[in-house]
Design brief:
alpha/beta; Rossmann fold; 37% helix; disordered N terminus
Amino acid sequence: MTQRQSDDSADTPIAVTGATGRLGGRVARLLAAAGMPQTMVVRDPARAPRLPGATTAQATFGDHSAVRAALDGIDRVLMVSASETLDRVEQHRTFVDAAAEAGVRHLVYISFFGAAPDATFTLARDHWATEQHIRSSGMNFTFLRDNLYADFAPALVGDDDVIRGPAGDGRASVVAQDDIAEAAVTVLTHAPEHAGVTYDLTGPQSLTFEEIATILSEATGRAITYHPESVPEAYRSRASYGAPDWQLDAWVSTYTAVANGELDGVTEDVPRLTGHPATALRTLLFR
């Protein structure tokens, strides 16, 4: 194992997973703009962004040997959670084990707000399991538990301009991906200060879906409304997509977690890490 650097100098080896995606790509671009060298660990190097000071390594989370080779000589890693699949936790465990074997000192993991073994949102349980495996790996870690992405709010609207889901009048403190990316860069570039810390990343407001619909209406000029489905109604309205049962459970439980109050609450972690107020949904949509 090569000797690692322990300071926050510009030549500290950093790796970013998911650099071809929306969140990982944001982080990669911010690191490049800051003059930080990085390795982008991606499935398809041809799709990786061309950034100054960046190299690419090909690996999937479930390929232990490829991950170990990609992370050799790397000090800090941003682990953006893998795509939603039935075996995602297994893929995560493989990646974490390979990172530890490669000598990674600090793993920054993109988790989910309220991650717990009994979380209503089924995929938040996966994040909890991954966190526990990282804790047992021997590496330093930081968990960034993101609330629902504010950027995805427009995608919740159906073709009939209705948001449907069994969220009742529950609230979610939706957070902008740009804010998450900035927070991640702060942690990656000042890792020792954040070792062992879990941050709950939220927007500045906790909103009901009716309030989200109102903001979307203002931004689009369309009359967008929210229909609070029952749970059986939610399963029926999504059955036509032909998704597997675990995926339907994940979709529906996103809303029931909101109804149960598990995505409510605003923290100061985004301002603390970024140095500016968290971005409101209205601000994001009117940019």
